[in-house]
Specification:
By secondary structure, the protein is α/β, with parallel strands linked by helices. The chain folds into two domains: about 5-100, Rossmann fold; about 105-280, Hexapeptide repeat proteins (UDP N-Acetylglucosamine Acyltransferase, domain 1, 3 Solenoid). The chain contains eight helices and 21 strands. The chain has helices at about 5-10, 25-35, 65-70, 80-90, 110-120, 130-135, 140-150, 155-175; strands spanning about 15-20, 40-45, 55, 55-60, 70-75, 95-100, 175, 185, 195-200, 205, 210, 215, 225, 230-235, 240, 245, 250, 255-260, 260, 265-270, 275-280. The protein has a six-stranded mixed beta sheet. It has a five-stranded parallel beta sheet with strand order 7-9-12-15-18. Strands 8-10-13-16-19 form a five-stranded parallel beta sheet, with no helix packed on it. The longest helix is centred in the middle third of the chain and has 18 residues, at about 155-175. The two termini are about 15 Å apart.
């Protein structure tokens, strides 16, 4: 699957497109994925970046949004929820999406190879050599995706056996226990390796981020967690039992969730857990619908 072509098709129905974010994510988006002829300019909240040029596009401050009058804002930043709220405060009435929302969704039938490409794409500006130097844990994604790609195909049974053993060895080496039975959408990211554990029946949406020393597993009730798209689980967090986390949930460091339900767009912290911040977007303001077919 050609990601740039897929994204171009998703943007076909929009007029003016603006990228929000002039950091490494914005640079990678303009350089690798967004069609150059579709992005009119870049917006960033850092006043030091106003007036600079990023990949041939002028960087504007948020106060210029109304003058730019975009039909679509592509958010290229981890501060997605905060930027959505800022768009609301600026009175923006168009559509706003995260950059990775433009990638193929799971219901569009991407193969494990396609999901691996999205896993790698989330490494932002890194080249293949720097993957191995600075984020060698990407090898867990590689062996996990290839093992799943070979599973259930009799003609690939010998290769599956080899990949299954190799995946186990890679998981042991990096201390990331990711059984091939786990169902994960594209864009799975491990910022650091070390003591990450998944129950074999866990389901993860797209672009989930799991930090070190996190456990996503069962409890005495026998339930298994389900994480929606863009969920981030920070260091030392325990997500247990029949926990259901909606899109764009952040689980704070050392938080423990057991049979916990969060509809999403919130930060959950503590033991016992509480919603420390809920991100609300008033009806009729910035739409968060995924664009295109």
């Amino acid at each position: 699957m050609n990601l740039r072509r897929h994204i171009a098709e998703r943007l076909a129905g929009y007029g003016t497109v603006v990228a929000w974010g002039a950091g490494s994510s914005g640079r990678a988006a303009l350089r690798k994925w967004l069609p150059r002829d579709r992005v009119a300019s870049v917006i960033d909240g850092n006043p030091d970046k106003a007036g600079t040029v990023l990949e041939g596009r002028t960087v504007h401050g948020p106060e210029d949004l109304s003058a730019l009058n975009p039909d679509l804002v592509v958010i290229c930043s981890d501060a997605y929820q905060e930027i959505l709220e800022q768009l609301d405060h600026l009175g923006y009435r168009g559509t706003a999406v995260h950059m990775f929302d433009l990638f193929p969704a799971d219901d569009q039938g991407p193969s494990e190879f396609d999901k691996l490409r999205i896993d790698i794409a989330r490494q932002i500006d890194r080249n293949p050599l720097s993957y191995l130097l600075f984020r060698p844990q990407i090898l867990v994604n590689v062996t996990y995706r290839l093992t799943r790609q070979c599973a259930g195909r009799p003609v690939l049974l010998p290769l599956y056996a080899v990949m299954r053993v190799l995946h186990t060895l890679v998981c042991v080496f990096f201390s990331i226990s990711l059984p091939p039975s786990v169902r994960a959408g594209g864009g799975l990211l491990f910022p650091h390796f070390g003591t990450v554990v998944f129950h074999p029946a866990v389901r993860l949406g797209r672009c989930c981020t799991i930090y070190h020393c996190a456990t996503i597993g069962s409890n005495d009730g026998g339930g298994v967690p389900e994480l929606a798209d863009f969920v981030t689980v920070y260091t030392g967090a325990l997500v247990l039992g029949a926990t259901r986390l909606g899109p764009h949930t952040r689980v704070g460091a050392q938080t423990m969730l057991s049979d916990f339900v969060c509809e999403g767009r919130a930060t959950v912290v503590g033991r016992p857990p509480r919603v420390a911040r809920a991100f609300g977007h008033p009806q009729g303001t910035a739409s968060q619908e995924s664009p295109g077919p």
